[in-house]
Amino acid sequence: MREALQQAKRIVVKVGTSTLTHENGRLNILRIESLVKQLADLANQGKEVILVSSGAVGAGLAPLGLKEKPKDIATKQAAAAVGQGILLHMYEKLFGEYGHTVGQVLLTREDSTKRSRYVNLRNTLLSLLTLGVIPIINENDVVAVDELKIGDNDTLSASVASIIEADMLIILSDIEGLYTANPQTDPTATLIEEVDQITPHIYEISGGAGSSRGTGGMYTKIEAANIAVNSGVHMVIALGAAPLVISRVASGEKVGTHFVPRTTKPHMKKRWMAFGSRLQGTIIVDEGCAHALMTQGSSLLAVGITAVEGEFDEGETVSIVFEGEEIGRGMVNYSSYDLDRIKGHSSRDIAELLQIGSTYEEVIHRDNLVMLR
Ligand SMILES: Nc1ncnc2c1ncn2[C@@H]1O[C@H](COP(=O)(O)OP(=O)(O)O)[C@@H](O)[C@H]1O
Ligand SMILES: N[C@@H](CCC(=O)OP(=O)(O)O)C(=O)O
């Protein structure tokens, strides 16, 4: 029994295209009806429910006479424009039958990278929940081109869960959960029931999409788990086709893979910095520095930096990496150009090295740092 999941009050559920459609690409109406019924019942229990639904492109294929997912962006966007309407119509009708109102929310990358938009999005979602509405969220595929794209709804759902401080995120997939290897290529792979820490090994065993209808595969679900657990949100990956799967996860039954969250949840500003803003580069640190950051609550000082990757300005967000593993994220006080000149040096020498009067002692102050390990 997973007691904490039973207690979850605010629940985000993400459904992928492979769960919502048949193999021929047409909508799986029985499946959608069952999902809606379970979500409506959770709402009737007094829980707050947020649905992140893929399927816009998939639902738009048949009406446009397309046999498979188009390769070119413009046709994909046309399919999404048609399909998103169809999807929403269906959700509105089905939730309506159970007495629930839905609200459509379509997002692009900028809605989380720009701090003002991030705060605005949070306010809108919380206001929908206060009004008893079930938000139905998708990426705005119709306008999103590369630089605006979130890329996949797995990480989108985790960002949403982080933004609104959800208690639990359930990602429904075409597979029971995370396996020790991709079961499509390794028949000996077994289901992992619980993940306490998202180590590089967890990323290594997670491969790409399993079907032409899926996007991102297990890898993007682990990226989502990284955002969720570091934002204090429980996450479960489970099989969307399993009977009453949402109800069973929410009642604490041991189904799928459970990712256990960290006990401390960073403040909203830090959550935005780590999981909303764009990462602009990487700072590689030595062992002493990694240890001080992870165990002593220290700020990041120039002396512990061994290398700097990417080009970034002061005030931007970067990854902090030790031995190939990302251990934290933070907002820098120095540009990559300046860091290259001061890395490995004591804070006392910065003014002389950079030939400036006043300097910051820290490269990343503790207040602007989120540790992931
Ligand atoms: N370690 C793993 N455990 C489980 N599935 C994996 C793993 N590595 C890769 N996969 C693949 O990821 C697929 C699920 O992702 P995806 O195809 O994007 O589906 P969805 O549409 O549900 O998001 C699985 O069907 C499987 O083929
Ligand atoms: N936003 C796209 C789907 C993106 C996506 O992540 O797809 P999936 O792997 O099916 O959840 C759509 O609605 O078609």
TrEMBL record:
ATP binds at residues 14, 173-174, 215-221. Residues 281-363 form the PUA domain. InterPro entries: AceGlu_kinase-like_sf (IPR036393), Asp/Glu/Uridylate_kinase (IPR001048), G5K_ProB (IPR041739), Glu/AcGlu_kinase (IPR001057), Glu_5kinase (IPR011529), Glu_5kinase/COase_Synthase (IPR005715), Glutamate_5-kinase_CS (IPR019797), PUA (IPR002478). The lineage of its organism: Bacteria, Bacillati, Bacillota, Negativicutes, Veillonellales. It comes from the Bacteria. This is Glutamate 5-kinase. CDD domains: AAK_G5K_ProB, PUA_G5K. Catalyzes the transfer of a phosphate group to glutamate to form L-glutamate 5-phosphate. Pathway: Amino-acid biosynthesis; L-proline biosynthesis; L-glutamate 5-semialdehyde from L-glutamate: step 1/2. It catalyses: L-glutamate + ATP = L-glutamyl 5-phosphate + ADP. Keywords: Amino-acid biosynthesis, ATP-binding, Cytoplasm, Kinase, Nucleotide-binding, Proline biosynthesis, Transferase. Transmembrane segments: none annotated. GO terms for molecular function: glutamate 5-kinase activity. The keyword Nucleotide-binding applies. Substrate binds at residues 54, 141, 153.
